[in-house]
Amino acid sequence: xxxxxxxxxxxxxxxxxxxxxxxxxxxxxxxxxxxxxxxxxxxxxxxxxxxxxxxxxxxxxxxxxxxxxxxxxxxxxxxxxxxxxxxxxxxxxxxxxxxxxxxxxxxxxxxxxxxxxxxxxxxxxxxxxxxxxxxxxxxxxxxxxxxxxxxxxxxxxxxxxxxxxxxxxxxxxxxxxxxxxxxxxxxxxxxxxxxxxxxxxxxxxxxxxxxxxxxxxxxxxxxxxxxxxxxxxxxxxxxxxxxxxxxxxxxxxxxxxxxxxxxxxxxxxxxxxxxxxxxxxxxxxxxxxxxxxxxxxxxxxxxxxxxxxxxxxxxxxxxxxxxxxxxxxxxxxxxxxxxxxxxxxxxxxxxxxxxxxxxxxxxxxxxxxxxxxxxxxxxxxxxxxxxxxxxxxx
Length: 394
Prior knowledge:
By secondary structure, this protein is of the alpha/beta class. Helix content is about 35%, strand content about 30%.
């Protein structure tokens, strides 16, 4: 079979893809609550003739497109959930669900996934293998990948290779990021509780102030990356939440802080946690307080396997040109890492930003992306898929 011009096909379906993306954007749903979203996805896949299984991992959807000849099973994953953010973008397809917004691009991912399914159905009669479309709920830290894996998404048939992509505003429109090895960091959450002794703000000598101890701990933790981590390694330690007290003139009994650790290396991740606990305990002790810490692992690093990544790189070079391919990594995290621990694959980023309207970061209330990036993403993904299930005529 002569290889199709997937960029041309994606461009021809662009208006349809935009309409789907904007519909998803207007009606966002949080993780494991994607009832309208998953129903629409399932219906569109059914209308395309795919074998559809809804309710995988609660609200996930799986669609199978089987070729006429045996061959590899290729998993394509697209996330569906929105975020608990009040949108401030102001465009005419703004969220109609107060306090919920597609602030990360998952609306675009779903639209691209459905369009890719439509594109590939044209070539089903020449396919040697199976395409497995995984529309995943609850990517934003809620365990959606785990839920679908527990329901057997990686079985019957088991994928031989897996791919996912993300529209990415930190990368300019027209570029693509393709990284071999770790491309996104592992992410975990820690909670430090500093216990002191409450008292009146006018008599601090009669109390044991946990806020003062917590402030010193927060400051001290900033030294971990600069003084305990090899400068050639990459680790992030950030405190994002601090809670203490209920009024201005009472020293509380305790102070609680929450933060995150990001890294590409599991051993370095563990070492960082040990150092956080040591510093919290000893710093609290120096202020006559005690400190305890709880940790929750959210996602592992996203590691791209060499062979599938080479295929994506070749596809991106064909669609975009070699001079538009970047190999920069990010400290953001993604639960696609769990899938890639089981199945070799590649996760890549499609540039969708600029210096103006599309410059807002992911998870920002004014986030939006250049919708033309969906053409690039669909073309690269389809070209990648074709390398596995469509055979060129000799």
